[in-house]
């Protein structure tokens, strides 16, 4: 396995910081325990620390001396008693080799090692600020922690080749699990059983954990945007929306597929699905350096308006539909977000960028110009949320464009979303998500699920 | 589904408290977010609050008026905007019915509702103490939070029929998954793949999450007691130790099985396995009201000494082996612990009970007299931990009893543990764990794994 480019990330962060001297010093996460219990939360490393260290264990710290370009790892101490329970730890020399650092010391030596560098300043993150101040005991110059935070965030926005390779793998593993569900799930299966199979398959292929709470929403439940209860069962005639992604090698994937519980899409679901697929195609075709992310949202809305006009759910002039944000009542979320170590990755709103207060756009998680090596989700969707449609009905400028009788015929579809993960390239984008989304391909997989008696989800 | 007996638990806690007036007021857990990220930790309710409310959602509180025996639920507020994302919430009336409470109010009304009861005192838990003090704004009498904590802990020690039924189900689901692994895993499979399959199968059958970090340890890795890295692959000739349990309906299961990677146990593994099985049989036969838990540990050690003497790993007199805690160097953990909502459940050391400072016993997680309705794990094990055996060699009183040449022949076994979950009954115990542990039954399952070409773990 190649070494995670932590040292390059420390250098990229120092460059963003614009500092030519001083030391960056950050602490990793600790083991977290449930209240009044000794049950540990599954350990997930703090994202910024993972980016700067590649270490996925509790109790570590990392430093970078900007002028000499020296990366220093600080390893937790494991006592002989503890080693009986968690195993012998690698030597400091082995840790350097594993993580690509120039030096390694026990965490107990942080203060001495850093002071020995006589740093002009010690930059740290808000989460580490108190501990760093205590270690410096008044003798270190400590710039505002927000400075390093902004620098790390901006560095994290641009994925290097190693990160893209990891994200490709995370997408492949999650895509394969999505495809396995489409190939095997049947009417009557519990939503929780599909989630279980997704988690089991991705863990078995090397994933660390779910990147976020999986959504398996049959029928009307897909109209609840963050439906993670997964408490129902799949009903024939419905579509099921599966929004699930595994974190692998520290990087999230975030994929949604919507498919019929039976072997084929019903007429209404097929029509809505086709519109959402058109929305995604329109956005993907436009993703390239120099384009604005909020324009991708607008593109998706324009395509949705065309489709919904064709189907008769909307009526009136396209420019008035756009001006009144009518599509925002059918897609009450943003077109996508940056993705990386975090599912909703950092850097979507550079300092000073305001949110746009309009239906749908309000929840847009990024507003900036696309540039090569940025990674985004592209996740158009159309939903029939009663409460949101009631708002639309109560807003005359919006209601004039909606034929609520036609909408009522589509209500049973619940919601459709199609979500892929992409990386912006010099000339356009690379789509990392590999599972089928064309109607014919999905129906072929669904036919397989019903072809064999032997297949079961659990 | 029957209603979780939260109200009975509030009453049992009030009885333990010895109070005949006043109000119990406790807060449930909140959603926890990773540092500098919007990624939520999977929500696990605080154990004490779950016991007193049955609510497995963030943002709730519960109260109990001791004199009038009134159970009052306080429900989080979900705004219309939020409902689009997480769904419409049940009404207060529906919440009362779901959780078996007498009344329900929004959390915003806690202060008014509790003050309206004119309570003689407001009992709360340490985790809630600050918020309760703020709500009372000086006008409530607030006894030490440690009082309610001790009362809840003692009430939780004794499982009622509803809790035992849930634990039976958690054990069945986990047992079936253990059996599925034995029936399908093969040499070459990744340890992580077995964990993935375990998690997937249990989630698919209704489990909430792993009760603790699963251990899948092939060969020498089983000599690391809390090996959760699961980074290796199964090698023919080894045994694999699988310690995994799902939480279902709020209650943990905690099961270990050890089995050959090939179709049959090798000679050394079979011998050690037989001794561990004898240890468990001896303890289970003795589990009954009135017996002391630390005596179960001693029983297991005595049985282990007999077995290891027979095999030639130990030598000398049984009483000297016992007096020098020689078996503690082969089983450096306790014989078991209380289990319930938490894997290591509360109440193992009633106030004033000291730990015993001796090898193995040092880590015993409970010291008390068994009584009906207590639930325990019974988990004897024998391990060949180099560092621990080096300590034994350096301790003359211990080393005289060990034939290190014979021990060296068994080192490759790594470790063997067999762990079941039991409930103490009036006459003895009920074993909740249903997966096979007899050598013949295990080898029959292992033969199945190699019988068909179609079976794979992932």
TrEMBL record, chains A, B:
Entry-linked Pfam families: AMP_N, Peptidase_M24
Q: Which domain of life is it from?
A: Eukaryota
Single GO term (MF): manganese ion binding
Instruction: Specify the Aminopeptidase P N-terminal domain's residue ranges.
Output: 4-133
Tell me the cofactors it needs. Mn(2+)
* BP-aspect Gene Ontology terms: proteolysis
Q: Which UniProt keywords apply?
A: Hydrolase, Manganese, Metal-binding
Q: Which InterPro entries match?
A: Aminopep_P_N, Creatin/AminoP/Spt16_N, Creatinase/aminopeptidase-like, Pept_M24, X-Pro_dipept-like
Cite the PANTHER family for this sequence.
XAA-PRO AMINOPEPTIDASE 3, XAA-PRO DIPEPTIDASE
Q: What is this protein called?
A: Aminopeptidase P N-terminal domain-containing protein
* Source organism per UniProt: Coemansia thaxteri
């Amino acid at each position: 396995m190649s070494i995670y480019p932590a040292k390059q990330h420390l250098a990229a962060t120092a460059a963003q910081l614009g500092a030519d001297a001083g030391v960056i010093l950050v602490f990793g996460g600790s083991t977290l325990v449930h209240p009044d219990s000794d049950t540990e939360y599954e350990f997930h490393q703090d994202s910024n620390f993972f980016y700067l260290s590649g270490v996925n264990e509790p109790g570590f710290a990392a430093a970078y001396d900007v002028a000499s370009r020296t990366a220093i790892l600080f390893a937790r101490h494991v006592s002989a008693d503890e080693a009986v329970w968690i195993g012998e730890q690698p030597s400091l020399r082995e840790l350097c080799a594993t993580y690509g650092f120039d030096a390694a010391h026990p965490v107990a030596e942080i203060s001495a090692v850093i002071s020995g560098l006589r740093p002009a300043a010690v930059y740290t993150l808000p989460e580490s600020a108190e501990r760093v101040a205590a270690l410096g005991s008044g003798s270190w110059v400590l710039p505002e922690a927000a400075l390093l935070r902004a620098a790390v965030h901006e560095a994290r926005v641009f994925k290097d080749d190693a990160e893209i390779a990891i994200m490709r793998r995370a997408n492949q593993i999650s895509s394969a699990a999505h495809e396995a569900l489409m190939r095997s799930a049947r009417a009557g299966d519990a939503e929780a059983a599909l989630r279980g199979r997704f988690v089991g398959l991705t863990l078995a292929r090397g994933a660390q954990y779910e990147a976020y709470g999986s959504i398996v929403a049959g029928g009307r439940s897909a109209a609840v945007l963050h439906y993670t209860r997964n408490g129902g069962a799949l009903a024939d005639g419905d579509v099921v929306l599966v929004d699930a992604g595994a974190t692998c090698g520290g990087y999230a994937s975030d994929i949604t597929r919507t498919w019929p519980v039976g072997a084929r899409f019903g007429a209404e679901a097929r029509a809505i699905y086709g519109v959402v697929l058109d929305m995604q195609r329109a956005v993907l075709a436009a993703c390239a350096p120099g384009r604005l992310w909020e324009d991708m949202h607008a593109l998706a809305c324009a395509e949705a308006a065309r489709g919904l006009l064709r189907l008769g759910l909307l009526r009136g002039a396209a420019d008035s539909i756009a001006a009144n944000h009518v599509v925002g009542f059918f897609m009450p979320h943003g077109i996508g977000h940056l993705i990386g170590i975090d599912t909703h990755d950092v850097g979507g709103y550079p300092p000073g960028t305001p949110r746009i207060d309009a239906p749908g756009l309000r929840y847009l998680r990024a507003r900036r110009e696309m540039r090569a090596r940025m990674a985004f989700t592209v996740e158009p969707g159309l939903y029939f949320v009663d409460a949101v449609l009631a708002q639309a009905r109560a807003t005359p400028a919006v209601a004039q464009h909606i034929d609520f009788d036609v909408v009522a015929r589509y209500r049973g579809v619940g919601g459709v979303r199609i979500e892929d993960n992409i990386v912006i390239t010099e000339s356009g984008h690379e789509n990392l998500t590999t599972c089928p989304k064309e109607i014919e391909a999905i129906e072929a997989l669904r036919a397989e699920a019903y072809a064999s008696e032997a297949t079961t989800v659990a």
